[in-house]
Amino acid sequence: MAAIRKEYGIARYSLTLSIIGGTISFYHYLLQKVPFFQGHAIACGRIPCTRQYIN
């Protein structure tokens, strides 16, 4: 919607949200792939965070 209205100030906010989401995604990737992070994972509940669901 902001692109249609040519409001380019929204780019700052969308970039911030993209960086936050990318950081969380990278952390979950490390939990699944790197053995060091698998051993030090915080409890995720009934579904384990360290299991690889998609290869």
TrEMBL record:
Keywords: Membrane, Transmembrane, Transmembrane helix. The chain crosses the membrane at residues 12-30. InterPro entries: DsbB-like_sf. This is Uncharacterized protein.
